[in-house]
Every structure is written in structure tokens, then in C-alpha cells.
């Protein structure tokens, strides 16, 4: 109950209504005290007029008049003459004097609170105007016991009435809040749960029906969000289906192109000058198409297998990669160098790390070959207390600006004409699977530097997502 919106609203309503009644209580008690004192002045005046009408009133009648007026003595000033009309023994000294002709509201409230908190019996003097202009001034001396008892009784009745009013008001507000706010909010929550069960179903998207402006705006925003999410899910499903179809096509196309690649080897043995001139271009085109199919198939896998981490000699990995690339250099003037301790080992999956290094070295070789200028590719290894770093650098022309902006984005970060930009994406994913990251450290006319970071401890913190430098 206390955790619900309606329950808390009910409690707050009771508290605020009681606070309002307390603010009303003090002026009410002050007004009650004022009326009480004025009524005693009026009674005292009536008693004094009875005495003035008959000077022969005996002491017993005078005492009865004072007892009915609840005062000790009465002084009435008429025609500038001050007369003690009725009197009786005063049990104590007068503690305070109150002039009902001059007290303002703040003074009345202060005096009322003072009387409520002071339980000791006192004797007070009260001044006021006689009713019906029966004189210039009337003054009485009276005890405070009856006044305080009457004020407490009145206060209890006011508080009880306030409590009843607050309960009734709170009940009505509770029902109103449940009908106007809580029930529509619960309906929205129920709709959200219904939509979450099947977000692809457009029939489950909310339709705004709330009559309250704020709730309707919330429902409208929720409808927009759900519509966009449903469309995104549908788009992803279509892309997944398209990816599956592309993977199948790429697989079959790769097989066809591989066969065609074998046939082109015989074209190079032809004596026809035109065939000899066009055969290398045909071979290069078919090779690029085969590479594109292989990259698409690799990227289209649902997920790469988890790396099987072992301690692998870095020289073994780098040696296999460089040996294969040296054979692919052909007539180009490209040299390879290695710079790392001969005994350096890294914790990695040999197959996956071979693919990463092959992608980086092959990209560097192709970039230098495209320029026709001599170049160098270097693989260096470094060790720190927390990580291994493998740097692949080249003296090529650097990466194009567009490639730098989308370096690790599939199909957008291609570094050469005809490339799909999948090699670096796959390489970055493989390195992340090892708990490390691949980054571009530098690129420009002086060359390009890529760095592979591998953690030395299995519990090392994973680095931020890779991004272009």
C-alpha cells in the first residue's frame, strides 16, 4: 500500500489536510478566547446594571451575580466616573491585563497559545467597551481556569472535526487519483508488457487513448518508440535473411571463381599478344573476386569460435605469414623485416592470430604494390608487465581519408579499390576475442602503423572498442 502511487497520495493528502487544519486551529482558538472574554464582559455588565437598578441588593445576591458572570469584581466607568459596582475577594495578584478594544489578530493568537500551554491558575484583568453604549469602559477581574478548560474542549472538537474532514477528503482524492492517474498508468504498463512479449507484432503497438494531456503525450512518445523498434527489428530480420542469402551465393560463386582461376593459368601460356596482355588483369580480377567471397563468408558467420589460448612463439606466427607474402610479392621491390626477441611467446589462438597478422601484412603489401615504388614491411614485438604489443608497419602511401573514418566498419572501411573492408573488421573482432584490441597508431605519406594489444593476464581489463586514429 505505501509503495503504490495511490497509497502515498492518500497519506500525503491526510498530512496536508491536517496541516491546513492546524493553520486554521490557532486563529479559531484565538477567536474562541476573544468571544469567551467578551461574553464575560457582557455578563458582568448585566450584573452591574442589575445592581444599579436596585441599590438594596444584599451581599448574597451580589455574590450570585459575580458567580454567574464568572468574575471577581466589576468596574464600570460612566460619565468619566469610575465606579466599583461589584466586588469580591481576589485570591491572587493580577498576572496580566488584556484590553479587548486594542488587541490585533497576532496579539490575540499569541495570548491564546500562551493560555493553552500554561496550566497554572491565574487571575487576569480584562478591559472592554460596554455593550449598547451603556458606559465608557467596563473592567473585570476573573480566573483563567474556566477559560483554559473551555479552550481545550473547543480545540478537541476542532481537531476531531478536522480529522473527519481530512479522512473524507483523502478518500475522495484517493478514488479520484486511482481513476484518473493510477488506472491509466497501469494500462500503459500492461500494454508495454504485452508489446515486450512480441515486439515484431505491429498489432501490439499502443494506441493513445488517455484523456489527460501528459499521459497522452507519454503514450504518443511510447507509440513512436515502439513503431521505430518494430521497424528496426524487421529491418534486422531482413538483413539477416539477406546475409544468409549472400553467404550462400558467395560460397557457390567462390567455387566457380576458383575453377576459373585455375583455367586462367593456361591463358598465360598462350602466344597471342592480346591474351598475354589481358591475362594478368583477368587473373587479378578473379583473385579479387575470390578474396571478396572469402571475406564475406568469414564475416557472415554467426560468430567466431572462442579462441583456444596457448603460449605460441611469435617467431613461428610471423615467419609463416611473411614467407607466404614473399612468394606473393612477385617482381615488386618489397622487403620484410622482423624485430622481436627470438624467445618471445604470446598467449593466443595460433590459427586466429595467424589470420590477423596475415590480414595486416597482406594489406600493407598490396598498398605498397599499388604505388609501384619500393617499400618495407616490418613486424615488431614488445613486452610490458601487463601486455604484449605486436606492431605491423609499412612505408606505403598511408590510408585514404575515407578509409580512416570507417576503418573498422564492414563494407565501408576498404583500403584499396575493389576491397570490401572486411579484413580489418574481422581482425579487430578476433583480437577482441583474445581480450585485447587492434588500433591504428599512425598513417600518412610516411607509412601506416597498426598495433595489436594482447593482455598478459587472463583477468586483465578489456580495452575500449577499437577506433581509427
UniProtKB/TrEMBL annotation:
Q: What is this protein called?
A: histidine kinase
What keywords sit in the KW lines?
ATP-binding, Coiled coil, Kinase, Membrane, Nucleotide-binding, Phosphoprotein, Transferase, Transmembrane, Transmembrane helix, Two-component regulatory system
**Which InterPro entries does the entry link to?**
HATPase_C_sf (IPR036890), HATPase_dom (IPR003594), His_kinase_dom (IPR005467), HisK_dim/P_dom (IPR003661), HisK_dim/P_sf (IPR036097), Sig_transdc_His_kin-like_C (IPR004358)
Coiled-coil residues = 215-242
Q: Which regions span the lipid bilayer?
A: 6-30, 158-181
On whether Transferase is a keyword of this UniProt record, the answer is yes
EC numbers, comma separated = 2.7.13.3
Output the Gene Ontology terms for molecular function.
Answer: ATP binding; phosphorelay sensor kinase activity
User: Which Gene3D superfamilies does the protein's record reference?
Assistant: 1.10.287.130, Histidine kinase-like ATPase, C-terminal domain
User: How would you classify this enzyme at the top EC level?
Assistant: transferase
SUPFAM superfamilies given in the database record? ATPase domain of HSP90 chaperone/DNA topoisomerase II/histidine kinase (SSF55874), Homodimeric domain of signal transducing histidine kinase (SSF47384)
What organism is this sequence from?
Pseudooceanicola atlanticus
Keyword Lipid metabolism in the entry? The reply is no
Amino acid at each position: 500500500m505505501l509503495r503504490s502511487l495511490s497509497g502515498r497520495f492518500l497519506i500525503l493528502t491526510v498530512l496536508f489536510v491536517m496541516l491546513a487544519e492546524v493553520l486554521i486551529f490557532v486563529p479559531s482558538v484565538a477567536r474562541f478566547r476573544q468571544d469567551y472574554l467578551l461574553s464575560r464582559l457582557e455578563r458582568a455588565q448585566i450584573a452591574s446594571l442589575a445592581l444599579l437598578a436596585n441599590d438594596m441588593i444584599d451581599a448574597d445576591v451580589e455574590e450570585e451575580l459575580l458567580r454567574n458572570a464568572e468574575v471577581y469584581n466589576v468596574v464600570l466607568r460612566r460619565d468619566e466616573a469610575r465606579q466599583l459596582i461589584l466586588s469580591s475577594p481576589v485570591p491572587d495578584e493580577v498576572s496580566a491585563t488584556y484590553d479587548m478594544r486594542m488587541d490585533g489578530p497576532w496579539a490575540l493568537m499569541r495570548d491564546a497559545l500562551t493560555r493553552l500551554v500554561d496550566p497554572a491558575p491565574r487571575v487576569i484583568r480584562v478591559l472592554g467597551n460596554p455593550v449598547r453604549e451603556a458606559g465608557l469602559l467596563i473592567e473585570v477581574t476573573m480566573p483563567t481556569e474556566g477559560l483554559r478548560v473551555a479552550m481545550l474542549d473547543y480545540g478537541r472538537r476542532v481537531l476531531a472535526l478536522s480529522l473527519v474532514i481530512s479522512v473524507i477528503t483523502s478518500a475522495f482524492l484517493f478514488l479520484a487519483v486511482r481513476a484518473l492517474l493510477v488506472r491509466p498508468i497501469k494500462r500503459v504498463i500492461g500494454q508495454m508488457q504485452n508489446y515486450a512479449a512480441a515486439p515484431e507484432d505491429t498489432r501490439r503497438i499502443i494506441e493513445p487513448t488517455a484523456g489527460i494531456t501528459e499521459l497522452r503525450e507519454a503514450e504518443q512518445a511510447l507509440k513512436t518508440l515502439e513503431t521505430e523498434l518494430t521497424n528496426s527489428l524487421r529491418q534486422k530480420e531482413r538483413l539477416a535473411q539477406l546475409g544468409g542469402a549472400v553467404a550462400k551465393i558467395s560460397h557457390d560463386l567462390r567455387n566457380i571463381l576458383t575453377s576459373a582461376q585455375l583455367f586462367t593459368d593456361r591463358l598465360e601460356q598462350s602466344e597471342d599478344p592480346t591474351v598475354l596482355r589481358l591475362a594478368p588483369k583477368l587473373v587479378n580480377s578473379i583473385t579479387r573476386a575470390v578474396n571478396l567471397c572469402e571475406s564475406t563468408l568469414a564475416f557472415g558467420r554467426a560468430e567466431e569460435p572462442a579462441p583456444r589460448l596457448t603460449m605460441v612463439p611469435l617467431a613461428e606466427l610471423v615467419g609463416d605469414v611473411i614467407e607466404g607474402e614473399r612468394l606473393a610479392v612477385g617482381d615488386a621491390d618489397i622487403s620484410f623485416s622482423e624485430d622481436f626477441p627470438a624467445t618471445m611467446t604470446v598467449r593466443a589462438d595460433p590459427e586466429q592470430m595467424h589470420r590477423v597478422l596475415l590480414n595486416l601484412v597482406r594489406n600493407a603489401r598490396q598498398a605498397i604494390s599499388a604505388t609501384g615504388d619500393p617499400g618495407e614491411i616490418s613486424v615488431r614485438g614488445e613486452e610490458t608487465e601487463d601486455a604484449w604489443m605486436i606492431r605491423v608497419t609499412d612505408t606505403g602511401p598511408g590510408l585514404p581519408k575515407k578509409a580512416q573514418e570507417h576503418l573498422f566498419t564492414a563494407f565501408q572501411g576498404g583500403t584499396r579499390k575493389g576491397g570490401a573492408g572486411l579484413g580489418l573488421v574481422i581482425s579487430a573482432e578476433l583480437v577482441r576475442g583474445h581480450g585485447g584490441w587492434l588500433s591504428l597508431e599512425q598513417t600518412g605519406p610516411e607509412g601506416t602503423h597498426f598495433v595489436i594489444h594482447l593482455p598478459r593476464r587472463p583477468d586483465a581489463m578489456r580495452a575500449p572498442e577499437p577506433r581509427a586514429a
